[in-house]
Amino acid sequence: QVQMVESGGGTVQPGESLRLSCTASGSFLNIGLMGWYRGAPGEQQELVATITGRGRTNYADSVRGRFSISRDNAKNTAYLQMNSLRPEDTALYYCNADGEDLLARPWKSWGRGTQVTVSS
Hints:
The radius of gyration is 14 Å and the shape is elongated. It contains no helices and eleven strands. 0% of the residues lie in helices and 57% in strands.
């Protein structure tokens, strides 16, 4: 089993910044793609940003230029730096990752989410 644990959410005013972290733990050979998604619990999630194991990134149009995704492979951790936050960024943010387990079988894991609220 691979567990993803997010942290760093909170409540901020418009224009402020937050930095989210997501760390993978458990038994696995490697981690491939890591990404951040957002939305309400039980609803379809919106892709925010992804990053490959080689550092290639992809962003939703709504966050491009404001958010930055990065990863530290030695720490099995992905980050999401969120600047110039807007009220419409308010959501539960989920971390997702895939990879291979110790038997070289593919896995995919989701975190339970961290709440980001942008309000005056």
